[in-house]
C-alpha cells in the first residue's frame, strides 16, 4: 500500500475516536466548542488508558481484541452520556477541524521528509526498543528492552 493510504487510515481512526469521545468530553469541558477541539486527544488518552488497564489487570492479552474492547467500552460510555443540548455551533466545529487538518498535514510532511531514527542527542533508538518490547509482550508492564532474552 502507498503511504497516502496509511495517512488517510490514521486520520480516519483519529477522527472516529474524537467523534466517539465527544459526548463524554462535552459533559466535563466548558469551552465554547464544548470540548470538540480536544476530544481527539482525550479520546486517544481514554482508549490507551483503557487498553493499559485491561492488559495490566490481565483481563486480556495485548492486541487487537484489547483495543477493540476499549473502543466498544468508550462507545458505550459516550453513547450513554450523549445530550443533544451540548452540541456546538457548526462554525466552531469547522474552525477546529481546519486547525487539526492543517496541523496533521504539516507534521505528516515533516515526518515524511525526515523519518530517520538517528541523529545527535536522539532517543529514537530507545523509543523503538520500547515499542518492540510492547509488541512482544502479552501483558503490561512490558519487559525491559535491555533485558529481553532472545529465544
TrEMBL record:
<dbReference type="InterPro" id="IPR018746">
    <property type="entry name" value="DUF2298"/>
</dbReference>
<dbReference type="Pfam" id="PF10060">
    <property type="entry name" value="DUF2298"/>
</dbReference>
<keyword id="KW-1133">Transmembrane helix</keyword>
<feature type="transmembrane region" description="Helical">
    <location>
        <begin position="6"/>
        <end position="26"/>
    </location>
</feature>
<feature type="transmembrane region" description="Helical">
    <location>
        <begin position="38"/>
        <end position="56"/>
    </location>
</feature>
<feature type="transmembrane region" description="Helical">
    <location>
        <begin position="62"/>
        <end position="80"/>
    </location>
</feature>
<keyword id="KW-0472">Membrane</keyword>
<keyword id="KW-0812">Transmembrane</keyword>
<feature type="transmembrane region" description="Helical">
    <location>
        <begin position="92"/>
        <end position="112"/>
    </location>
</feature>
<protein>
    <submittedName>
        <fullName>Uncharacterized protein</fullName>
    </submittedName>
</protein>
Amino acid at each position: 500500500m502507498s503511504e497516502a493510504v496509511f495517512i488517510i487510515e490514521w486520520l480516519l481512526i483519529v477522527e472516529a475516536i474524537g467523534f466517539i469521545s465527544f459526548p463524554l468530553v462535552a459533559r466535563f469541558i466548558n469551552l465554547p466548542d464544548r470540548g470538540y477541539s480536544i476530544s481527539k486527544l482525550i479520546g486517544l488518552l481514554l482508549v490507551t488508558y483503557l487498553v493499559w488497564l485491561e492488559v495490566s489487570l490481565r483481563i486480556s492479552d495485548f492486541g487487537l481484541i484489547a483495543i477493540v474492547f476499549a473502543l466498544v467500552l468508550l462507545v458505550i460510555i459516550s453513547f450513554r452520556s450523549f445530550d443533544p443540548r451540548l452540541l456546538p455551533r457548526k462554525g466552531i466545529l469547522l474552525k477546529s477541524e481546519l486547525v487539526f487538518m492543517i496541523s496533521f498535514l504539516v507534521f505528516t510532511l515533516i515526518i515524511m521528509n525526515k523519518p530517520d531514527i538517528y541523529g545527535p542527542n536522539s532517543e529514537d533508538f530507545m523509543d523503538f526498543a520500547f515499542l518492540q518490547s510492547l509488541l512482544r509482550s502479552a501483558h503490561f508492564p512490558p519487559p525491559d528492552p535491555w533485558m529481553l532474552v532472545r529465544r
